[in-house]
Amino acid sequence: MRPDTLAIHFAQDPDPSTGALVAPIHATSTFVQDEPGVHRGFDYSRTNNPTRRTLEQVLAALEGVRHCAAFASGLAAEHAILQGFTSPGDHVITTPDVYGGTFRLLNAVHGPKGLAWTQCDLADERALDAAFRPETKLVWLESPTNPRLFVFDIEKVCSIARRRGVRVVVDNTFASPVNQRPFALGADLVVHSVTKYLAGHSDLIQGAVLARDEETLAPVRFLQNATGAVPSPFDCWLTLRGLKTLGLRIARHNENAQRAAEFLAAHPAVARTYYPGLPSHPGHEIARRQSSGFGGVVSVELRGTGADARRFASSLRYFRLGESLGGVKSLVCHPASMTHASIPAAERARLGLSDSLVRLSVGIEDGRDLLDDLAETLGRCGG
Ligand code: P1T
To answer: For residues 276 and 295, what is the distance between their CA atoms, to the nearest angstrom?
Structure first.
């Protein structure tokens, strides 16, 4: 089955008891047992639930593997990986750009408990080599990164890490499995904020961790039940619904974002455009090689002050000002005061996360309307 067919059919046969074409929502906390300890594979919905299991099967199949644990949010999924694969005294290497919530999870939750972590330009092989320590347990890789869309050679990083016996986690949220398949490039674990492209409609929060085998996933699977940050059956069903159009949506996101990026790169009010689909992007060749599309997020540094950037972000018509990305409806955010505000200002300055940066999540509206919106607003508010 190819991915677009799989998203619609895989693990989703009509309900045998009623013939319902669409899988029911198993809204139940518990399952009646035939005898104490004898049941039909489900005993309690925190541990397992048929709707969640279907979602996990479909997500795994889309990433080309068979094992997935769904969580109540992307951050809950990340937390389970960090808890399951690291201990106090261990060390994690990550990308220079990461989602602000991931930074906070490392910096303010796991850091104080003794986890060390280094942000490193994974494109610089010498810097990457130097970043490894005997205690390094994970390389945590966003590609493209949030919010500046840096792209890293996943296959190369995986082979370097493998030689050292270190696992690689790829946060595949920005690409989605339609554009990029990290397991084929050597990743050990894939994590998603399902909230974004997978669910696709900005109507729920959810996460997932995927692995090639259940043995690798075991620490995460244990924590899914033991700490209980599981998604509701209804949210799992909504994601199953959203996934049916994933291929179509991503194709349009890719197309609209490419056009927006080309337009913005040529605009005099824009100092710098970050989009892997632009030949000027430093990771363009790698992105062409390791992905089949460049995604729906475009970031720009505007000329002018941070206040100008904030005004621009607040003035667009179709790009609504809000956190998140990956939904059908376009969004815009000012990372320094929104998604990446949990990174202290001095640290943002060190990382080069400018106050003039604006991040666009280009939706699936008619791309011409989106370009008109950008042109008109830059005309009014451009620096
Ligand atoms: O929001 P949540 O579902 O918990 O997922 C966290 C997360 C993990 N990884 C990446 C790459 C992300 O972008 C996110 C969430 N990001 C936003 C809310 C945002 O606006 O960037």
So the answer is: 8
